[in-house]
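Example 5.3 — F-box domain-containing protein
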Amino acid sequence: MKRKAKTMGATLSSVSSRSVPPVTAASAPSEHFFPYPLEILEEIFLNLPPHEVVCLCRLVCRQWKEVADSESLWRERCRRERYQRCDESRIPDDWRLFYFMCKKRRNLLKNPIGENKMKDWQILNNGGDKWKIEGLMVPHPNKKVQRNFVTSYDMCKKAQMIDLEKEGYNPSFMDQFQPDIRISDWYAPRWDCASEYTISVQLLNHKKEVVEQFKPDTIYFEQWNDQQWNQMTHVFRNYGPGVRYIQFIHGGKDRQFWAGWYGIRVTDSCVEICPAVDK
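Solution (predicted structure tokens):
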């Protein structure tokens, strides 16, 4: 039955993309288009790309729309792709929305490793010889990272404001489901200069007032350190309704006031909305 369902799914996919003309209210058949048990139709949909189910299949007829919109279809899709809720006590009102929120998980910070210079970052402090972007002094655990932002001999801080609704996370989803919000930041000192690192992440409401905040103590490095990369992480949970923005701020400086760029280095910063636990 599995093999047959997949074959039917492949056939349906090719027909959907090549042969079926656009469906309009006038042309859509009013009776059942698929004369088999709905469980078989659901199994076919489970083997099609999710966007085809939403954008093509649900437009064919009333029966197909019913299956494409069904809770059981999207709940089963979540199960098969191992999208397990972070909080089992919170049951999604809309399993399809939950599925696509999990599917689109990504870093909401733009230009996190300086490939586009300082684009998308708001400079709050630009002390000393100002922010600079350089190549790595020691390899980063993520081999894709080849650049970092470097601070100078007076405080350097930069920020990004994330508008969650513009990023596709609507207010009702944020309020009802309150998905985990995970932040991550990588920082490293120079081996030959003392430095300091600071970070602050705030969850804000529609008035940009603080709902919850992560602000650990400033981290200090002494001269002649091991120069290795360190990761700062935090997960916001159960923060309540009303979160509409995330404000990410980090930076630092060197502590010996040397001209040039001997301060803390930061890169590969990340803010993610995590409705499901990590696989």
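Remark. Residues 122-274 form a domain with the Jelly Rolls fold (CATH 2.60.120.260).
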